Amino acid sequence: LMCEQSLSTYSFSPLQYNRYQCYGAEECVLQMGGVLCPTPGCGAGLLPEPEVRKIVCEPSNGMGCGHPPFIK
Ligand SMILES: [Zn+2]
């Protein structure tokens, strides 16, 4: 899969990549069951844990916009 190949090019762990580093890899996010932040101009790839219903674009990592939690 191209998705896996792109992941391997980053030094981040796959989990960190999934959550925080999917800018410009929207298709990869969607393939993994993630969603894109609905905030205009943000578009961060968000990949919640399978059991998590509310998705947060966390600003704590320095990349999220702080969009209020939303349901996938
Ligand atoms: Zn966002």
UniProtKB/TrEMBL annotation:
Gene3D superfamilies linked: 2.20.25.20
GO molecular function per UniProt: ubiquitin-protein transferase activity
GO cellular component: cytosol; mitochondrion
Protein name per its UniProtKB record: Uncharacterized protein
Organism: Podarcis muralis
